[in-house]
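Ex. 9. Protein: Transposase.
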Amino acid sequence: MAKYTLDFKLSVMAYYQNNHSYKRTAKHFGLDHKTVELWVKLYQAHGIDGIKRRRTKAIYDTTFKLNAVQQVLLGK
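Predicted structure tokens for Transposase:
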């Protein structure tokens, strides 16, 4: 999956908000219309945070991991 900058996504949002359809916006930027639709919905629901890339992975300590394994083994 391609990674797009926040500025690019905001440009897509601005174009879409000027009364263009998902398909027209997608064609203009060389994207799939489902990608545009997803970004618009995320933006509408969560604002700019919805379309920001998440760069951090969750880091779990050893205790948490052992507890998770025990829960699975116990069927919980």
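Check your answer against this statement. The chain has a mean pLDDT of 90.
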